[in-house]
Amino acid sequence: MNKTVANAEEAIRDITDNMTLMLGGFGLCGIPENCITALVKKGVKGLTCIANNAGVDDFGIGLLLQQHQVKKMIASYVGENAEFERQLLSGELEVELIPQGTLATRCMAAGYGMPAIFTPAGVGTEIAIGKESRKFIVDGAEKEFLMEYAFDADFAIVKAWKGDTQGNLVFRETARNFNPLMAMAGKITIAEVEELVQPGELNPDHIHTPGIYVHRIFQGVDYEKRIEQRTVRKKN
Length: 236
What we know:
By secondary structure, the protein is of the alpha/beta class. Helix content is 21%, strand content 27%. The mean pLDDT is 94. It is globular, with a radius of gyration of 19 Å. It has 2 domains: 8-99 and 151-219, 3-Layer(aba) Sandwich (Glutaconate Coenzyme A-transferase), CATH 3.40.1080; 117-149, no CATH class. Strands 1, 2, 3, 4, 8, 9, 10 and 11 form an 8-stranded mixed β-sheet that branches. It starts with 7 loop residues before the first helix and ends in a 17-residue tail after the last strand.
């Protein structure tokens, strides 16, 4: 039951070119910094990355974009990354933009073993082009819904505050974000944590992700915990 590995390099050892990865986080909050750094060093290419956003130019998934390691980005928000914009406009990067709720629900569906979900988000917009739709009776009226497929990711890579050697995870405040959903959804889930403890040290009532979803876990180092945009009040 001990799922610990020594470090990020060992955790990502079998991630190879052209794989699909889920990466937890929201903005720069709760992102798997150590694993991203290890992926950059390893130099894997042709990746499809599923994440809420694409990081910034010099941090998070932005580091993978800088090295042209990402073939396709599936995300909800990408507005803070100039290199992402450049690659998109030049045709170097394939991009699929998804409403944030749809992104979350497609992660959840993968974790639950559901092949697809129906959602009203995106009906009548460019998001609906080429997708199957179906009408349901909701509150006595007919309403159209898009069919969206569950994600199919080779690996889910998440970051938690605390975890134990059996893979049980605790997330801290808003750093929880997409991490628990993605932890459920990957064929192999890698978790990096700020503090790794022994079984029994975590309060069972505080565990957000049960260890059954996690395949590898390690204690990370040197977390920067950047602030994406800092705003301060002007002096009077």
